[in-house]
Amino acid sequence: MRYGEKEIKEFDVEKDLELWENKAENDYVIKISLPEFMCLCPRSGYPDFATLNLEYIPDQFVVELKAIKIYINSFMYKNISHEAVVNEIYSTLKAKLKPKWIKLEADFNPRGNVHTIIECRSDLVVPKRN
Asked: Catalytic residue among 39, 41, 120, 123, which?
């Protein structure tokens, strides 16, 4: 196994998602594009590809870029739906970073004549119906 494959397969978000202290006094927006996201369809096992666009206003922490790259790549062999994977990544980053504001958009490549864009954002709160 090559070192990159090993890093991806053994990545543990609880211990390996490296955060750095945000020392800036000003508020600012960090925008990260991850154009090579891949996961596997939970029904067919076919690969699904997307561009992930992450934006956040940090509070105390920022995510180290190599760590987020490996975290995102750790979904490469995971069977998971578009909706579930976006919500999992969003919830994890929101919980770890505790940002002032965060948005994650996943723009999935069309497959079978269907194009999906899924977005989670901290300023969009819609109560669930019972």
From this structure: 41
Question: DSSP labels for 14-48?
Answer: HHH--EEE---SS---EEEEEEEEEEE-TTT--EE
What does the alpha-carbon distance between residue 61 and residue 48 come to, in Å, rounded to a whole number?
Answer: 30
Please say if 48 is a catalytic residue. yes
Q: What are phi and psi of 83, to 5 degrees?
A: -65, -45
Q: Which of 16, 27, 39, 48 is catalytic?
A: 48
pLDDT in tens, 20-75: 999 999 999 999 999 999 999 999 999 999 999 999 999 999 999 999 999 999 99
For the chain, where are the alpha helices, taking DSSP H only? 3-10, 13-16, 65-73, 82-97
Question: Is 41 one of the annotated active-site residues of the chain?
Answer: yes
d(CA 17, CA 112): 34
| 43: nearest Cα among 79, 69, 1 | 79
Q: What's the average model confidence in pLDDT over 86-107?
A: 98
At 60 the pLDDT is 98
Token pair 């819609």 is found at: 126
